[in-house]
Amino acid sequence: MAMAAASSSLRSLRALSISRALSPLPLLRGFALRLLHQGVLEEGRRGGPGSVHPTAVVHADAMIGQGVMIGPFCTIGSSVRIGNACQLHAGSHIMGDTELGDHCIVLTGAIVGADLPGQTIIGSNNVIGHHSVVGVRCQDLKYEAGDKCFLHIGHNNDIREYSSIHRSSTSSDKTVVGDNNLIMGSCHIAHDCKIGNNNIFANNTLLAGHVVVEDYAHTGGAVVVHQFCRIGSYSFLSGGSAISQDVPKYMMVSGDRAELRGLNLVGLQRNGFSSVEVMKMRRAYRKIFMPINTNMGQFDDRLAEVDKELAECPAVLSMLQSIRGSFEQDRRGICKFRNWCGS
């Protein structure tokens, strides 16, 4: 009797499985999904080659370029615009009013844009790493719900895994990242930051709101930068440093509440500065920050002396402008310096 009952139950389960398999609902859902993806491809790409995985959810109003590859379980919102030859890897999501340029790669788990007022614009040839969050709401308490906020990213940036880049905190400002930057894993660029070109941020570099980083700056790992600070071009921030004031151009800083440690000689040489330029910058640095005796006048007097003696060198003039600019109204001044630090 037990064996007969078990055999009857098995036959019932098989019949139920067959009836479900033959049910038209899964077939209709699959057919509708294929039609949706085919329509998106044909309308957005105008017949260009590309692929959309059947599990991806692509809104019919999204604008998709030619040759776009959309992987499993991706979602693309209604206001999204994706350029040609982009790759969206499994589980990546693009939302809100977001524009992605040509030849971009969005890796697994990354989130780009948000369903908020405002816009995220990303240029061409960018890589957005695994589980990065780019173009989402800022963490500034002065942000008001419903206010438009913006993020603009240029071209050829490599944004590595678990990094975060936030939109601006107000509609009158925007977060900006330029071109050719390497932003390593777990970095954070907060609201309203202005990042230039050709910078390298090592892992866990954290930039607070309104920070300005010029061009060709380089940070070591676990660097933190206070809000409203400015990091000058060709500067180097040693690993583990806490930056609470401006770092002038061409200089190197280190330490908790970082202090000037001299010129970034390695960076200057690597970026093509001549030996003559470096020699004049070292001379200027010593006169400004390493006075031989106390009779060389106040800080402003030493700046004026260097301006008179070495201003014919464009690099020295740029250094002086960077230092003086840090003492303008609403600026934070420069990092502290010690007379014994080398250059």
Explain this structure to me?
- Residues 54-137 form the Mannose-1-phosphate guanyltransferase C-terminal domain.
- Keywords: Acyltransferase, Cytoplasm, Lipid A biosynthesis, Lipid biosynthesis, Lipid metabolism, Transferase.
- GO terms for molecular function: acyl-[acyl-carrier-protein]-UDP-N-acetylglucosamine O-acyltransferase activity.
- Residues 246-335 form the UDP N-acetylglucosamine O-acyltransferase C-terminal domain.
- One of its GO terms (biological process) is lipid A biosynthetic process.
- The strands form 3 sheets. The chain has a 13-stranded mixed β-sheet with strand order 1-4-7-10-13-16-19-22-25-28-30-31-32. It has a 10-stranded parallel β-sheet with strand order 2-5-8-11-14-17-20-23-26-29.
- It has 6 helices and 32 strands.
- The protein is 26% helix and 23% strand.
- It has 2 domains: 30-210, 3 Solenoid (UDP N-Acetylglucosamine Acyltransferase, domain 1), CATH 2.160.10.10; 275-337, Up-down Bundle (Udp N-acetylglucosamine O-acyltransferase, Domain 2).
- The longest helix has 22 residues, at 24-45.
- The termini are far apart.
- With 343 residues, the chain is of the alpha/beta class.
Briefly characterize the structure.
By secondary structure, this protein is α/β, with parallel strands linked by helices.
Query: Treating each run of at least 4 consecutive H or I residues as one helix, how many helices?
Result: 6
Mean pLDDT equals 88
* Biggest sheet details: 13 strands, mixed
SS elements, strand count? 32
- CATH-derived architecture of the largest domain: 3 Solenoid
Unreliable segments of 5+ consecutive residues: 1-6, 12-47
Backbone structural class: alpha/beta
Question: Oligomerization state of this entry?
Answer: single chain
Helix content: 25-40%
Largest sheet: spatial strand order = 1-4-7-10-13-16-19-22-25-28-30-31-32
Global morphology: elongated
β-strand percent reads: 15-25%
- Through-space gap between termini: 94 Å
Q: What is the CATH homologous superfamily assignment of the largest domain?
A: Hexapeptide repeat proteins
C-alpha-based Rg, rounded: 28 Å
InterPro entries: Acetyltransf_C, Acetyltransf_C_sf, GMPPB_C, Hexapep, Lipid_A_LpxA, Trimer_LpxA-like_sf
GO biological process, one term: lipid A biosynthetic process
GO molecular function: acyl-[acyl-carrier-protein]-UDP-N-acetylglucosamine O-acyltransferase activity
Protein name: Probable acyl-[acyl-carrier-protein]--UDP-N-acetylglucosamine O-acyltransferase, mitochondrial isoform X2
